[in-house]
Amino acid sequence: MVTQYDDKGKIFTQVISKRPVSVIVQTSRQRIQGTLHVRPSERIIDELNMSQKFVALTDGQILDDSGEVMHQFAFLSLNLEQIVWVIPADEIKAE
């Protein structure tokens, strides 16, 4: 990452644009619905592989086994080791 300074010493950094993707994440204990932010030219798997140890989800909820909302969140940092599977929410087909 390149850091630039103006003549007054203000720091400018590159902005990384990402697109929001609604996802459903299954962990070993809960199911989580939220928004994962992915670079425009990348896939969800690319974002998960690029992350260090955690991935950020926004504007979501944690569900119990019956699908009831246990918690709602604006931001959640999820340990990648806890993820069993991830699916884009728009790929869920109604029964």
Shape: elongated
Low-confidence stretches: none
Beta-sheet strand percentage?
over 45%
The biggest sheet, with number of strands, parallel, antiparallel or mixed sense and barrel status, is: 5 strands, antiparallel
Could you tell me how far the N terminus lies from the C terminus, measured between alpha carbons in angstroms?
46 Å
CATH architecture: Roll
Q: What Rg is obtained from the alpha carbons, in whole angstroms? A: 16 Å
Oligomer: single chain
Structural class: mainly beta
**Overall pLDDT confidence:** 87
The first-level CATH class name: Mainly Beta
Give the tally of structural domains: 1
Give, in order, the helices and strands.
EEEEHEEE
Number of helices: 1
- CATH fold-type name: SH3 type barrels
Widest sheet: strand ordering: 6-5-4-3-7
Number of strands: 7
- Helix proportion range: under 10%
